[in-house]
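Thread title: Can someone regenerate the structure for this chain?

I was given the following input by a collaborator and told the matching structure tokens would be attached. They weren't. Posting the sequence so someone can regenerate them.
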Amino acid sequence: MTDSFMRCCGKLFSTLLFGLTLFTSFAGQAADISVRNPNLSVAEDGYTLAADFNINLNSRLDEAIAKGITLYFVVDFELTRSRWYWLDEQVVSRSQTFQLSYHALTRQYRLSSGALHQSFPSLDDAQRILSRLRNWLVLEKGTFRADQPYFAAVRMRLDLSQMPKTFQVNALANRDWNLSSEWARWNFTPTETSAPGGAPLSPGAVDAR
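Best answer:
Regenerated them for you:
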């Protein structure tokens, strides 16, 4: 009876260990994005946004790029103001799209935004530039009130709606394509005067939700 029980426990332990190993293997392949160091800095025309992103693509997304499918990464920025009598007021909403693609003829990866583009010899090089957002004018003069408290927020996401229709249906139903960071939020109070040399002002405590 004891030997049978021990064998049963041993098989159960082996099954659980195999399942845990399998889960860890799949979890390690998961794609994700996270936001680091978001910051608003005084500029001549208002405030510019800088942020860093940790971008981890899974094998399915790597394969899609290698086959010539363009991935559209969108950075969203919002500025809201708290109202005690109603929902928060959305003061500013901005989005910027980056296209990541591979060109087989030149064997180069291309990162584009609007009319601007750069080419890179490797996907890692392209991702490194994509992960560093700098000098994006998100708050123009006249869109905010000085010395008023606001909440700033930024995120990055993979926009499936801009992909070819044939891929959208499969992608929407597949978690491997569901790629978006949480919103990183922080307190922000603009001022009338510019910091010397356009130095960044303190963004306050960052809260990724």
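Residues 8-28, 194-209 have pLDDT under 50 and may be disordered.
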